[in-house]
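Can anyone check this?
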Amino acid sequence: MNQFDDPSAVPDEPPLSGEPGPADGSGTPATPEKDRSKEPGLPDPPGPLPGAGGAPHARRPGRPGRPLGPIAAHVSSAHRAWLGPVREAYLAAALSSGLTMSRLGEALYVSKPKISELLSGKLYPRWELLFDVAVALDVSVWPLYRLWRQAALETQHKSRAWIEKSSAARGTMMATRATPPMEHSAFRDITEGGYRLYAGVFLTGCCDAVLEETYDRLWLSWDQALASHDTRRYAFTVLRSAVMARTPHIDGRPEFSEAAFDTIALQTATDVGEAAEQVAESMALFKAMSRLPDNQLDVMVLRVLHGMTDEDVSHFLGLPLPRVRSDERHAIRFLEDTLSPPSHDEEPPPPAEEGDQP
């Protein structure tokens, strides 16, 4: 149960295209706010609320709103990709201006339960509602739409007809800026090649979707990325979360043995026997690598599979060079112990006789 609102007050989602509508047979959802943008006499949604990306103002008198609860456990990674930045924008506005879900709902002619359900992830909203929320919170609309659409197709199993219908009332091209900041574009130019190499180790066939999600998420949170301790580290963390969300896992560790068939050693093998032996060795190596801590795994993926220098890995991961070298040493020691354990068949050395020097 939602800790803020009565679930019975939250209207159901509209049916997908082709599904039966309300009992009256009209095919029109009964929720008033669903079609509020199409009803005559209602004003257009307001611009950014005071304190949401603009100048803060004094807190409105009255009781403060309840704190924003956690994201629902069932929410997918693709859904979180756009929900996280929207929640951050709401929390920033709540901190700077005392914005509450009630005030946000009043400004958008939407019930507080609906806003609460949207911000918790329990409701996957139509685009027309999310657009109005984004404008009110001063969130970049274009990357938000791309992430919302991708999640609707990937994890919400919404039809393209549903997506287009829910987007019609609030056109996607109403964004104030349809191109990312110049610094973001420059950052993408210098990192996309390396990001693609990293993603390709774990994924086959969906690297493009992961990269688009990564750079759209960075666009939405670019100010936070620039304000972070290291923009490169911030960005790589976004990439890694997108990659791992799509990577198969066994016992909680990433499974990427298919990369064994795309190693340089295999490509340079001269005969079938050598190739088969190399595949077996590579699969054993990758299985052992999957047990490494995250940072050590990332370092070894770039060092072993892509031959990057320690300096390149440091820049790519946004980690200090001494940390990279330390992670590499610990990883190599673990892999050596795992792949070449001491043989139990070896006879122990004879005990030293009395008087022998150590």
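Reply from J.R.: I decoded it. The two ends are 70 Å apart (CA to CA).
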